[in-house]
Specification:
Helix content: 25-40%
Structural class: mainly alpha
Number of helices: 3
Number of strands: 0
Strand content: under 5%
Largest sheet: none
Order of helices and strands: HHH
Distance between the termini: 37 Å
Radius of gyration: 17 Å
Length: 89
Amino acid sequence: MNRAECQKVDPEVFFPIGSGSLTPAQVAEARAVCGRCPVRQDCLRYALETGQGHGVWGGIDEDERRVMRSGSRRRPVGASRPERGHRAR
């Protein structure tokens, strides 16, 4: 990701030190950087595939990624549950 816009700014924009969660202003600043980044989708894909739990990756904060990951494990609406003792194929 040598073309990543985040390499041009202080990493604390994306990963604040000592403050716990990102503030709305920090998220907005990070998203502004991500919004002009040519590798934004690659960055987000990496964060989702590797379970990155902190910071802003690809313009998406930690809470949003948590929802994205949990949503991918849910069955589609209307999908039936496998019968007890049987595995879904």
